[in-house]
Structure formats: structure tokens, C-alpha cells
Design a protein that fits this description.
It is a single chain. This protein is mainly alpha-helical. Helix content is about 75%, strand content about 0%. The protein has 13 helices and two strands; from the N terminus they run H-H-H-E-E-H-H-H-H-H-H-H-H-H-H. The chain has a two-stranded antiparallel sheet. The longest helix is centred in the first third of the chain and has 41 residues. The mean pLDDT is about 85. Part of the binding-protein-dependent transport system for phosphate; probably responsible for the translocation of the substrate across the membrane. It is a multi-pass membrane protein.
Length: about 325
């Protein structure tokens, strides 16, 4: 049991505690949980608001277009005299961009992560990693013009018959754009692997490359997979690059040399004013947006599951 301080009466101690109760530190401790709760509450309410907005507008679209046509057809001509709403033409364009981007980004991103984690000196890592992450801060519209005016002419000189608007050029540039995401997250996961594991493998005669490939990467697999899945979600949701360099021709085919239209590019086209408010074409962007929302949600849930499934704790 606490004894009263020598020289203070009980009444003086009660008055002193009352003053401490209303001190700045005490008020700050009481207010901070409320502010933190408010921040989390705003995020949750925003997510619910987005879902409800999509749901209400989606209902108006499916009042006029059967679900079986939206999900069972491959022809997407919403602005024609005989409109068609088969969303798979847009999904095919989106997947082409995502696949090409991942083919570019995964090997380059992982190679960068391995170098930064296993080979670079502390000074080199301090310089190179921020420079690499600057790439992630370049506006996507700049990447779009880079794809159209620089990458596409180079590809046309190498691939005869390549159209000015195609899937290959924006796919490559989207891959370049997401390299920092894969490299940075994977490098963080690799750096978290304890040094004693590396020392043990080196002590048994393994080379540095063998340690990186056979020891460090499997130990950091959860972080690496999470980086790849998050980067793929970013590639699926990319808008400006594919709008500028991909064209606007929704076709259900997988030739990367032809023009395409992705889900996000279609939303931009309609949102710019190609269809009036309240028309069926206007409501179609909510249907496409809802499908894109589901895609990215599934990808993020998959990333979270993979992270928990392969998490290593030391």
C-alpha cells in the first residue's frame, strides 16, 4: 500500500491528483484513442459508402441489361446502334496488360531486391533504394506518353506490323512502373531474414547466390508473394498508360500486337462525356467498376492469405 509522501497531508495529495487529472498529458492520452478510432471509422465508412454507391448504380444497370449478357458475352459495343455489353472483351484487355507487366516486373524486381539485400553495401543500398523508389513517384500520364512516343516506335522498328496502339507497349511500361513495388517490398522481406541463417549456410560451403536463391528467398517467400500480388493489383487497376498507349478497341483476343481497351480505360472514356448522365452507357461504368472492385478485392485477400500461409517467424 502506497504511503503518503512525507510533508503532504491527505487533502493536499487529493488536490494534487485532481490537478494531474486535468494536465495536458492526461487530456492528450484521453483524446488520442478517440482520434485514432475516428480515423479507422472514416476508412470503414468510406469503404461501405463506395460499396453502396456501386451497388445502387449497378442495380440500375442490371435493370436494363441481363446479367447473363454482361457475364456471358464477349462483345462490348455500348455506344453502337445495337449495343452489346459482354464485359469479357474488356477483361481480356486488362489481363493482357497485367500479364505483360508481370513478365517484365517480376524478374527485374526480384533481381533488384536480391542485389540490394544480398550484394549491395550499406552505402550503395542507401543511395540506390531511394533512387529506385523515385520511379514509383513518376505520374502515370508521363509513363503513358513515354510508352506512346518512345517505347512504341522502338517496338515498331523491331516488330513489323505493330500498330501504333497496341497492348505490348503499355504492358511493358506498366511493368517498369511496378518494379519499385516488387523490389522494395521484397528487399524489406529479404533483409528481415536473420543474418545467422546466412552465416550458417555460408559456413556449410554455400555460395552467396545459393544463399540468396535457396535460403533467403524461401524464408522471405510470404513478403515476396505479397509484393507480386499487390503489384499485379496495381497493374490491373492502371488507367492512364493504357488509355494513352493502348487504344480503345475492346476485342476478346489475346494478340498483344493489336489495340485493346481495358476496364479502367473504358471508364475514363465514358466519364469524359461520351455518354450522357442516366443513360445505360453511363450506368455501365459502374458495372465495370464493380467488377474491377471485386478483382482487386480478391487479389488483396489472396495476398493476405498467402502472407499468413507462408509467414516465417524468427
Amino acid at each position: 500500500m502506497n504511503q503518503p509522501n512525507k510533508g503532504f497531508s491527505i487533502r493536499e495529495m487529493i488536490e494534487s491528483n485532481k490537478q494531474k487529472k486535468y494536465s495536458t498529458t492526461n487530456v492528450f492520452d484521453k483524446v488520442m484513442p478517440f482520434l485514432l478510432f475516428l480515423s479507422a471509422f472514416v476508412s470503414v465508412v468510406t469503404t461501405i459508402g463506395i460499396a453502396l454507391t456501386l451497388g445502387f448504380e449497378l442495380f440500375k444497370f442490371f435493370e436494363r441489361v441481363p446479367v447473363r449478357e454482361f457475364l456471358g458475352s464477349t462483345e462490348w459495343y455500348p455506344l453502337s446502334a445495337d449495343p452489346r455489353f459482354g464485359v469479357w472483351a474488356l477483361v481480356a484487355g486488362t489481363l493482357k496488360i497485367a500479364v505483360i507487366a508481370m513478365v517484365v516486373a517480376v524478374p527485374l524486381g526480384l533481381a533488384s531486391a536480391i542485389y540490394l539485400s544480398e550484394y549491395a553495401s550499406e552505402r550503395a543500398r542507401t543511395i540506390l533504394k531511394p533512387i529506385l523508389e523515385v520511379l514509383a513517384g513518376v505520374p502515370t500520364i508521363v509513363f503513358g506518353f513515354f510508352a506512346l512516343s518512345f517505347v512504341t516506335p522502338i517496338l515498331q522498328s523491331l516488330i513489323p506490323g505493330l500498330k501504333i496502339y497496341n497492348a505490348l507497349s503499355p504492358g511493358i511500361v506498366v511493368g517498369i512502373m511496378i518494379i519499385p513495388m516488387i523490389a522494395s517490398i521484397s528487399e524489406d522481406a529479404m533483409s528481415a531474414v536473420p543474418k545467422k541463417i546466412r552465416d550458417g549456410a555460408l559456413g556449410l560451403g554455400a555460395t552467396r547466390l545459393e544463399v540468396a536463391i535457396k535460403i533467403v528467398m524461401p524464408a522471405a517467400l510470404s513478403g515476396i508473394i505479397a509484393s507480386i500480388v499487390l503489384a499485379m493489383s496495381r497493374a490491373i487497376g492502371e488507367t492512364m498508360i493504357v488509355t494513352i498507349a493502348g487504344g480503345s478497341q475492346p476485342n476478346f483476343e489475346f494478340n498483344p500486337l493489336n489495340a485493346i481497351q481495358t476496364m479502367t480505360a473504358y471508364i475514363v472514356q465514358i466519364a469524359k462525356g461520351d455518354a450522357g448522365y442516366g443513360t445505360i452507357e453511363y450506368y455501365s461504368i459502374y458495372a465495370v467498376g464493380a467488377l474491377l472492385f471485386i478483382f482487386t478485392l480478391v487479389m488483396n485477400l489472396f495476398a493476405n492469405w498467402m502472407t499468413r500461409r507462408f509467414r516465417e517467424e524468427y
